[in-house]
Specification:
six-stranded mixed sheet; alpha/beta; globular; single chain; five-stranded mixed sheet
């Protein structure tokens, strides 16, 4: 008798979720909150606010963006983990908290696989190696030949240690026999200032963070990370094409996630809305101006990307012995 009652209760709850989920946003007075781990004004913030505007129309509800910078985006990640799984809170995150942090932190305040439900792969943020326009080298192979003769000029700039660019550099060293050293900056502006001034031979960051300086003739591009050229810079070869193998998986992307336990119909509704928006031509064109390439891939593709990249980086991280600060 108890088992029958329990089964009936589960069926009633499931039926309730299925009935209420499609009209959740139309009936709710609670705003849908998009949480990001960065301050206002950056590429992810701009994309999230553009998404919020479109979601207001698509879902018929108020949508707000909440900036929770700090701890390498972990404050935002943990806030969404703790949020009620009712479809009113989603996380838009870069790759690192889901790919690299599980490998470099002994203790995380979240489980990337158990605490979140992937919703959609939203956009790629292509990354490119650059240097001062006055540098004597114009390709990665020319740079590697130059740096062999410059034993005191082995620094490679990046925004932070412990990310995909850092471990891509270690892969490059392994593949080419170089001993290039990562140099971490608090942000792209400081790195690019040192590049332009000739203090830093080369730096790697997103296209969006460098495009204005490239257009103004202060820096030049040497190669993009990943396995394919980006449509934003079709004439710039990949690092591997340009003689610097190792950065094939050193890509940057943004994905959307919901807290574990969010009802399946709500997850499907959010996924469909997000993919529809990012695939529209006007939205894609506006994101290209920010240095982003919209993708609109389903949850299954996002999940596969996370696990493939994490396992590919695992031996590199383990061999490096790198551990993030707690």
């Amino acid at each position: 008798m108890k088992s029958i009652l329990k089964t009936s209760l589960y069926m009633a709850l499931a039926a309730c979720a299925l009935t209420s989920a499609p009209t959740l946003y139309a009936q709710s007075s609670t705003p849908l909150k998009i949480v990001i781990g960065f301050s206002a004004g950056g590429g992810l913030d701009n994309m999230s606010r553009a998404l919020a505007e479109k979601l207001r129309t698509e879902l018929g509800t108020t949508v707000i963006v909440e900036n929770r910078p700090g701890a390498g985006t972990q404050l935002a990640v943990q806030a969404v983990k703790r949020a009620a799984p009712d479809g009113n809170t989603i996380l838009i995150s870069p790759a690192t908290p889901f790919i690299i942090f599980p490998l470099t932190y002994d203790k995380l305040g979240y489980d990337p696989d158990r605490d979140f439900i992937p919703l959609a792969h939203l956009a790629d943020a292509p990354m490119v190696a650059s240097t001062s326009v006055n540098s004597s080298y114009n390709t990665m192979s020319e740079y590697l030949a130059w740096v062999k003769q410059q034993k005191d000029q082995t620094g490679v700039g990046m925004v932070s240690l412990g990310g995909t660019v850092h471990f891509g550099l270690l892969n490059l060293n392994k593949n080419t026999g170089h001993s290039l050293q990562p140099v971490a900056y608090k942000g792209a502006p400081g790195m690019l200032t040192d590049e332009i001034g000739g203090v830093l031979p080369i730096g790697i960051d997103t296209v969006g963070g460098q495009s204005e300086l490239q257009r103004s003739g202060k820096i030049k591009y040497l190669g993009v990370t990943g396995t394919q050229r980006t449509p934003l810079l079709p004439n710039v070869p990949t690092m591997s094409e340009s003689g610097a193998p190792g950065f094939e998986l050193s890509t940057a992307w943004y994905g959307a996630f919901a807290p574990a336990g969010t009802p399946v119909p709500v997850v499907e509704k959010l996924q469909a809305a997000l993919i529809k928006i990012v695939k529209t031509p006007d939205f894609s064109a506006s994101m290209a101006q920010l240095g982003l390439v919209t993708t609109g891939l389903p949850a299954s593709a996002l999940s596969q990307t996370i696990h493939t990249q994490r396992e590919a980086f695992r031996p590199v991280v383990q061999k490096s012995g790198f551990k993030a600060n707690q």
